[in-house]
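Q: Give me the 3D complex with pyridoxal-5'-phosphate.
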Amino acid sequence: MTNREIIEATDRTQVGVYARYPVAFVRGRGARLWDADGREYLDFFTGLAVNNLGHGHPRVLGAIRAQSEKLLHASNVYYNEPAARLGELLTCYSFAERIFFCNSGAEANEAAIKLARKHGAERQGGRYEILTTFNSFHGRTIATISATGQEKYQSGFQPLLPGFRYVPFGDVAALSQAVRKETVGILVEPIQGEGGVVIPPPGYLRDVRRLCDDHGLLLILDEVQVGMGRTGTLFAHEQDGIRPDVVTLAKALGGGVPIGAMLTTETLAAVLGAGAHGSTFGGNPLACAAGVAVVETLLGDGVLENCRVLGRRMLERLERLCGELPMARDARGRGLILGLELDRPGRPFVAAALERGLVVNCTADRVIRLLPPLTISAAEADEGLEILESVLRAGA
Ligand SMILES: Cc1ncc(COP(=O)(O)O)c(C=O)c1O
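A: Here is the predicted complex, encoded as structure tokens.
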């Protein structure tokens, strides 16, 4: 099918919840994508922070191929080896002692919310409330839009799930004031991704950890977007030197195969006994085999180091651009999640960049968000920034 045929068939048959750009990708290798008409693109989006190792990584493909020939699915009524191995890896390289596998970020956060509520109900005299932040994003289910502190995701879906209250991001005093006897935990992103690549002040997560300790609250970190190496360490919170109680993951964990995970401690996990929660596809052998390959590759091969080095290089160039282009207000980021805030909507520039062969994204209306593969080369990083810069200059 051509681009046009794919677009027409999609628009005729699918619920129109996505404001799509008029391109259908059919193939990818490393940081490159090709559309159905054979046109090549440089990918600074990675399917929204999913393909952290680039497209078609041989180790991920090999693991998927090998697993697909053995077993695709058998149910959580039984045990499976890839899930066992991925569980071992994730517990070995994180604070966690226990993992619950699911299929998406929203589901990972649902699991975290249920864990917090059951912990509150059974061990904390009925505490249930979770504090989250304005401008956050935690998913599209009813519970996770209720946790998300942005009206645009909630509008039309009321009544929302009770038990969430929002405070400004990055403000530990506001969090402290908001804590009350019903509060069981705090759910926060280490960096707000959808919210516009918003980085909290230094020490924020450490202060939130202290606040949680003082009040006996659970610290739940949503690392769905910034986990799996995106900020230059396997988990973003490692850079804050803290131990969370719960971390949620999805996106890049499966290298392109849908998977989600909730990581927690032995003690907390004990509140979710047999029958308390579950998912048909959670811990699916194919997704977990891909996950094992992803984690092993991220931890070897210099991927995280490349992410840190290239992240600094790209951020410096974006900062220079801010000095030169009046429309560019701010450049920020950590590792290879980067944001360039404009003084106007970014969507026309994203469309123009696509025309020029660069896949990039805009979030929070005015923030150009760059999420290249962590394996990107310096030449590719420069090439993409060159295109972005010329598109912005043309529009200035
Ligand atoms: C921080 C964060 N949490 C949760 C989600 C939801 O993940 P999913 O779309 O896999 O449900 C996202 C998705 O962008 C996210 O960025």
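A quick observation: The CA atoms of residues 1 and 9 lie 10 Å apart.
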